[in-house]
Design a protein that fits this description.
The chain is of the alpha/beta class and about 350 residues long. The protein has helices at about 15-25, 40-45, 65-75, 95-100, 115-150, 150-160, 180-185, 190-210, 235-250, 285-295, 305-315; strands at about 10-15, 30-35, 55-60, 85-90, 105-110, 165-180, 215-220, 220-225, 260-275, 280-285, 305, 315-325, 330-340. The strands form two sheets. Strands 6, 7, 8, 9, 10, 11, 12 and 13 form an eight-stranded mixed beta sheet that branches. Strands 2-1-3-4-5 form a five-stranded parallel beta sheet, with helices on both faces.
Length: about 350
């Protein structure tokens, strides 16, 4: 399909009326045009609200010549990306070299050929449109990448194409589970289920940001985040506990029958990205497994932790001993429920 350029604006800059008339007649009906007869006016029109999509710029003009106009265009952020094609009778290698050095994308030599003028203008407008489309696609990809991954992981993928797997020490892992969610799913419309869960997870995301935790992922009705992983946190454990207490106290419509339960553990883990078609940043290790299994021993308004964690923060929180509880893969461990003083 032939591309239409009728909405593209071309700025013609030339101090010779005959040249302006020839170029304007060639472009008439195919492009919108504006005319400037000197460098100062050209710069003003280039910076106007309706910026040109391309500039045809005469090299030899009294006062400010085309080279200087081009330098100023390329030096200003608002006009730097507008392609400039020089109009000139000069055909020496050094003249053309200088033109490309100051930022021009092409040359059209005098006397003008209708076919060449049209071809060059259309080529560079098409190229500029393709560049703009590619830049917009890149921005959208960046937004999606940052939505899927923690910020530092996304930046590492952009920089080197992957996230190097690493072992981290002293990371607080928070697992948040919505109890009675499955039963609700079975008796309600999908749109209602997803909308309500989405609203709750948005709250969890905001609370994670508030306490500088990084959201790792959601798994069904579970939400996982971590403190002290890619972002520096002064006290990862207390940050996670404070976040978990606020999450577990989120008010949910009593008619839903949902309850928020939180388990937290701290220790070493391994983190990295898996998958190629769909990136997923994830964490692995005993620290993660224990946090996930502690959820079953939590209740609203509290977070579940093992005894060692409780002892390390006992001065700052209330603790309720649940005695020895079976933890899959770890045997029996003394468990505590922490709540705010």
């Amino acid at each position: 399909m032939k591309k239409s350029f009728e909405n593209n604006l071309v700025l013609i800059v030339d101090d010779t009326p005959t040249n302006v008339s020839i170029i304007a007649n060639v472009l008439q009906g195919k492009f919108k045009t504006k005319i400037a007869t000197n460098g100062e006016k050209a710069l003003a029109l280039a910076q106007a609200t309706d910026k040109p999509d391309l500039i045809l710029l005469d090299v030899e003009m009294p006062g400010m010549d085309g080279y200087e106009v081009c330098r100023r265009l390329k030096g200003a952020p608002s006009t730097a990306n507008i392609p400039v094609i020089f109009l000139t009778g000069k055909t020496e290698h050094e003249d053309e070299k200088l033109g490309f050095e100051v930022g021009a994308v092409d040359y059209i030599h005098k006397p003008f050929s209708t076919e060449i003028v049209l071809a060059r203008v259309q080529t560079h407008l098409s190229l500029q449109a393709a560049i703009t489309t590619a830049e917009e696609a890149t921005k959208e990809a960046d937004i999606l990448l940052h939505a899927l991954l923690p910020e530092k992981a996304a930046e590492e993928i952009k920089s080197i194409g992957t996230v190097i797997p690493r072992r981290f020490e002293n990371v607080a892992v928070l697992f948040c589970d919505v109890a009675n969610f499955t039963a609700y799913c079975d008796n309600h419309e999908p749109e209602d289920v997803v909308a309500r869960l989405d609203a709750l997870f948005v709250i969890f995301e905001r609370l994670s940001q508030k306490y500088n935790l990084e959201k790792i992922k959601t798994i069904g009705d579970c939400f996982m985040s971590a403190a002290g992983l890619l972002n520096d946190v002064d006290d990862p454990l207390r940050a996670a506990i404070n976040c978990g207490l606020e999450m577990s106290s989120v008010l949910i419509d009593a008619n839903l029958g949902w309850e928020v339960r939180v388990g937290i553990h701290i220790g070493p883990l391994v983190a990295g990205v898996v998958g190629q078609e769909r990136y997923q940043f994830d964490i692995w290790g005993d620290t993660v497994n224990i946090a996930a299994r502690l959820v079953a021993h939590a209740k609203p308004g509290c977070v579940a932790v093992v005894e060692d964690v409780w002892k390390s923060v006992a001065d700052d929180y209330l603790g309720e001993s649940l005695g020895e509880q079976k933890i899959k893969g770890k045997g029996s461990l003394p468990i505590y429920r922490l709540s705010s003083k």
